[in-house]
């Protein structure tokens, strides 16, 4: 099993293999893959017969790939494997003489631009970067979002914001908690901010591109890039043997009722008695979110509970599980979705304290 941020280096010829071994020493933890004409492999090197077949196995196991070969070979080999720029690993191509290093795919979010520059600095090659925002030295909104921990909900809208910045046009911004503070030039931002108070985003969104940074859901036109901060913590209580499907259905219902974004869920929480609850563990894995467990004593500290339960107190020893767990996980944030129930599960949602008072 490879590490999630490891690099694969690929070479087809003996000259490419020599350069590959040099780069492997520079890129800590990288793995070198050599074609049959590149010569015999040594320890920690992997030999392959057909590049296309090997890439079907290894392409999505690595966060980045460096190909020491002709760009055309790489393009033809990768074409069937590509998914989306938000999912594909970084792809960099280097000629076997080490003169040029090309950022080919996933330049921003995948990190190919940064990888190309890093390799160029180390082997004396010229980085070839073709993304317009880099060339024009304007902010790359997708990189900014990534650096600030924001989930890009509609990546197809990145181009509207990027083009506006490239053309020196203004953009609307709704960012009540200041996640993008200082990241975008003030002179490009519209003085009026987008309001969450109406279905059309405050009526300010019909005039062009914009950025929405919030955990609430509003109907927005496609020119608006939606960035989700990790602000919501879901407290869960459940009976023994409750299925992940039942908990997930309740969670979706609560999110819909309060117009909250699933992409803003930062984590789930419950009582430590549920640490082996399969349905809860399965849900956390499906959401790819951390699951925190609190003891009875920790939950009992939370006294401001809107929906205490004598039944829960009788069987578990605390007046609340889901609401108290949500509040604790959010660092004593604001409970914005009080307890909702199904026959076997309860859910409450709190907003992180660092933003609840903003």
Work out the count of structural domains. 3
- The number of distinct β-strands equals 16
| Architecture (CATH level 2) name of the largest domain | 2-Layer Sandwich
Strand line-up across the major sheet? 3-2-1-4-5-6-7
Binned strand content: 15-25%
C-alpha-based Rg, rounded: 25 Å
Description:
Strand 5 (90-94) and strand 6 form a beta hairpin. By secondary structure, the chain is an alpha/beta fold. A seven-stranded mixed sheet has the order 3-2-1-4-5-6-7. A five-stranded mixed sheet has the order 14-13-12-16-15. The chain has helices at residues 14-26, 51-58, 71-78, 112-123, 132-136, 141-147, 158-166, 244-257, 278-287, 296-300, 310-316, 322-329, 353-356, and strands spanning 7-11, 31-35, 45-48, 64-68, 90-94, 100-105, 126-128, 151-152, 172-174, 210-213, 224-228, 232-238, 265-271, 291-294, 334-341, 345-351. It contains 13 helices and 16 strands. It folds into three domains: 7-130, Rossmann fold, CATH 3.40.50.11220; 141-228, no CATH class; 232-356, CobE/GbiG C-terminal domain (Nucleotidyltransferase, domain 5), CATH 3.30.420. The two termini are 43 Å apart.
Keywords:
single chain; 358 residues; alpha/beta; Rossmann fold; Nucleotidyltransferase, domain 5; 7-stranded mixed beta sheet; 5-stranded mixed beta sheet; 16 strands; 31% helix
SSE order and pairing:
Elements: E1 7-11, H1 14-26, E2 31-35, E3 45-48, H2 51-58, E4 64-68, H3 71-78, E5 90-94, E6 100-105, H4 112-123, E7 126-128, H5 132-136, H6 141-147, E8 151-152, H7 158-166, E9 172-174, E10 210-213, E11 224-228, E12 232-238, H8 244-257, E13 265-271, H9 278-287, E14 291-294, H10 296-300, H11 310-316, H12 322-329, E15 334-341, E16 345-351, H13 353-356
Parallel strand pairs: 1-2, 1-4, 2-3, 4-5, 6-7, 9-10, 10-11, 12-13, 13-14
Antiparallel strand pairs: 5-6, 8-11, 12-16, 15-16
Helix pairs in contact: 8-9
């Amino acid at each position: 099993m490879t590490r999630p941020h490891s690099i694969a280096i690929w070479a087809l010829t003996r000259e490419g293999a020599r350069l590959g071994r040099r780069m492997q020493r520079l890129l800590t933890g990288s793995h070198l893959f050599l074609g049959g004409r590149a010569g015999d492999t040594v320890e920690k090197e992997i030999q392959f017969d057909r590049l296309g077949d090997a890439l079907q196995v290894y392409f999505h196991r690595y966060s980045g790939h460096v190909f020491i070969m002709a760009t055309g070979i790489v393009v033809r080999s990768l074409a069937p494997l590509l998914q989306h720029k938000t999912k594909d690993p970084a792809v960099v191509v280097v000629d076997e003489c080490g003169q040029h290093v090309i950022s080919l795919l996933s330049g921003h979010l995948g990190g190919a631009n940064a990888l190309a520059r890093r390799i160029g600095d180390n082997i004396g090659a010229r980085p070839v970067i073709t993304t317009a925002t880099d060339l024009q030295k304007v902010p790359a909104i997708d990189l900014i979002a990534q650096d600030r921990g924001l989930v890009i909900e509609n990546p197809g809208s990145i181009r509207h914001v990027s083009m506006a910045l490239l053309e020196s046009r203004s953009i609307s911004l709704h960012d009540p908690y200041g996640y993008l503070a200082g990241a975008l030039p003030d002179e490009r931002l519209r003085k009026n901010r987008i309001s969450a108070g109406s279905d059309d985003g405050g009526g300010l969104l019909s005039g062009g591109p914009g950025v929405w940074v919030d955990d609430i859901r509003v109907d927005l036109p496609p020119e608006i890039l939606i960035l989700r901060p990790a602000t919501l913590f879901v407290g869960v209580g459940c009976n023994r043997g409750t299925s992940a499907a039942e908990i997930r259905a309740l969670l979706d219902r609560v999110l819909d009722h309060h117009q909250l974004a699933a992409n803003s869920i930062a984590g789930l929480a419950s009582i430590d008695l549920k640490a082996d609850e399969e349905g809860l563990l399965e849900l956390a894995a499906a959401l790819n979110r951390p699951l925190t467990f609190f003891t009875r004593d920790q939950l009992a500290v939370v006294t401001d509970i809107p929906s205490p339960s004598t039944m829960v107190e009788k069987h578990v020893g605390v007046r609340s599980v889901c609401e108290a767990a949500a509040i604790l996980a959010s660092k004593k944030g604001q409970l914005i979705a009080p307890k909702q129930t199904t026959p076997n599960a309860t859910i409450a949602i709190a907003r992180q304290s660092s933003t609840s008072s903003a």
